[in-house]
Amino acid sequence: MPRPSTLALFLTPIMWWAAWPAMAGVHEAAEVHRPYAGRCGSTVGDEAPGGVSEDAAITSIQNIPALACGVDSVAPVITLKNNGQQVLTSATIEYSVNAGTVLTQPWAGSLQSGQTTTVELARIAADPGSNTLVVRVTAPNGLSDEVPENDAWTHEFYTSAPGGLVSLILTLDDFGSDVRWKLLSSDSTMLYSGGPYSDGHNGDTDSVAFCLTNDCYTFIITDAFGNGICCADGEGGLVIRDTMGVVHAESDGQYGDQYAAEFCLTAVHVPERTHAPFGVFPNPNQGAFTVRGGPAYAIRRIAVIDALGRTVAKVQGQGGAAQFLALDLPNGSYLLLVDGATGAAPARMVVAR
Q1: Which residues pair with 132 in a beta bridge?
Q2: Which of 242, 264, 286 is the last residue of a domain?
Q3: Could you say which residues of the chain have pLDDT below 50?
Q4: Domain with 322 in it
Q5: Rounded to two decimals, what is the model's pTM?
């Protein structure tokens, strides 16, 4: 039947202060699974297969969201497992994005047979759009790996850099269960999706923030009953608009089975700072840190945004040039937006426990 359809898209730089609405959906990243997959993290786990002396394996890649907003690099965290019978004391980890420059990081420790541990890798550059990260472990104990089939792990993700906020406002009719939508990039990667919705909510709106970069996109909304989201079933519609007020797509809901719109963004950029900078100390940290600006920098409020573009914390400022925060944040990269007397300034922060 009909579907919500007030779609308002606002093109906003990632350094945008206001809290973003919850994302309707994110395309899941694909991972290539390998033999002898072990547990994530540090464990004393499964026994190694018999007859194998030297065998190191990668069993997972973590700390990279399927859609990374406003970042041009990622910091992978991998799970390394000893599948050999000998104690694993050293190995070499190699990794690259999109078959580009290979970074090498040595590992040293002590893993019993079947034991796993997490390893934090140095940041590696990512390209705007679709990315494929490949991590490989070699030279267990300085020797040849006897089971090379489990040496590598692959992780796919998508980056929007520079990142801009585009908001979708969808107004529903009475039959939200008929409505589904998706947003595709120029290479047909599904970035966001939504629906079905519950019935009986004519006039309700679903506001969704998209983190997008300079690219062309296709928005598609379908109605299972084939009569759009309007008229006899209610007053639905949608708008896609940027923060400058430019409308990229709009429908009054009278589209039958499907409405599709293509639009391109060409002016997403990181705005120049015109106010006093500030710092985060220490950085990286374990969730406790101090935001510190210049002598005349009065902190009014602080927002913490994760790699998916979600506002995960908002703190009211105390009006001083420095403020201490202790937040329960998972490991990862965050964007801090600090609003002061002269405007909002951005900074990157990493939480590593």
Answers
A1: 156
A2: 264
A3: 1-40, 271-276
A4: 278-351
A5: 0.56
